[in-house]
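anyone else get weird line breaks when pasting these?? whatever heres mine. first is seq + tokens for prot A
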Amino acid sequence: MKNSVILKSFPNGISVILDGTISFQELLADIGVKFREADGFFKDASVAISIEGRELTEEQEREILDAITQNSRLKILCLMGKDEEKNLKFLGVQSKLNFQNDENSGQFYRGTLKDGASIETEHSIIILGDVCEGSCVYSNKDIVVLGTLTGDVYAGAGGNSNHFVVALNMLPGILQIGDYVYNSQPQKTMRWGFKKPHTVPKIAYTRDGEVQIESITKELLDNFTL
């Protein structure tokens, strides 16, 4: 296993640097050993994972993530992709907003949810992609969309309103937290009818019996409570 798997920490995450010459099955075994050895150091941290060093299929990426979770106490929030701008936005948001610290609190889905697709989970979820119009996400806890949200999202779906929805581009169809539904406003348009771009990450949460949506700022996060 000599240097076939190298772990490097970065803020809120771990880079897993892989040998590109050995077989994938041998590599999986080495990953398991490496994370068992590092378990006392990383403990039960919530982290993003970056995999480097060799080209992988999505199935191989899933097998690697399974090997990590089966051999450590880490809570994997997401698999970092090659979109550097989106990665940086994620790290900025995730460093301020932590999922509730209970067992198996975070899950991730990598890909875009298109019309007719849906996800249901009892846990908090991070979606690495867009949630398109006609798709739905149901979570008993929190929802983070690292992309554009134009579909329907239901956070706190079990009836608990002490949860939130975050999106890099917040344009939801239906947005509900617990029993409260957001009353969306018509989108403002520019001359010739084009919509103004909305690229500032936003958070939706409940306050005074209503769903509020606000831009994510340092001042907001410093005083953010649920």
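and prot B, same format (seq, then tokens)
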Amino acid sequence: MAYYYLMAQLPSLIYEQKPPMSSCEFKELAISQLNKNDAALLNCLSLEPSAEAANGCKFISNWRVWEYNLRYSLAKERAMKLNRDVSAAEPQVYHMDAAAAASKASDEFSPLDGENVIDKARWNAIDSMAGMDYFHRNTVFAYYLKLLLIERREAFNTEKGFAEYKSLYASILESAQNSLGETK
């Protein structure tokens, strides 16, 4: 089914700009115009990978696999930096772009820059999965995911994040010093 009216009334989304509406507002608008099956699929869509079946929706299945690959690759990168073994199950389908994004993000100096690398990779993956038919349900799903990404980026607070980082770093150092003191 094509969603000409819904998609024609939506403003373009640009990663670096403020969202033109909230994801909740979009969801309310979209659900009123989607068929029952597509509305149910939109309701189960999120940035979190889920094992929940996507009822034959290739876009959602591909999104979940890609996101799982990204998270697996991030865990693997972080584990390698800490000289630890990765215990998560390796993905059955491997996405090189997800692994490359994880590697690039782990090389960033600041956690915020790393998160931006990850979210831009997500944005690009969503674009490539949505396809070329602008009025297809995949574009509706992609629009919602992009709104979620913009809202996620908007929620980042540099000052609060840096304060949390310093606090966490201090507690790690204190814990390490306490551990060394106990072994002497």
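btw re prot B: The chain has eight helices and no strands. The mean pLDDT is 86.
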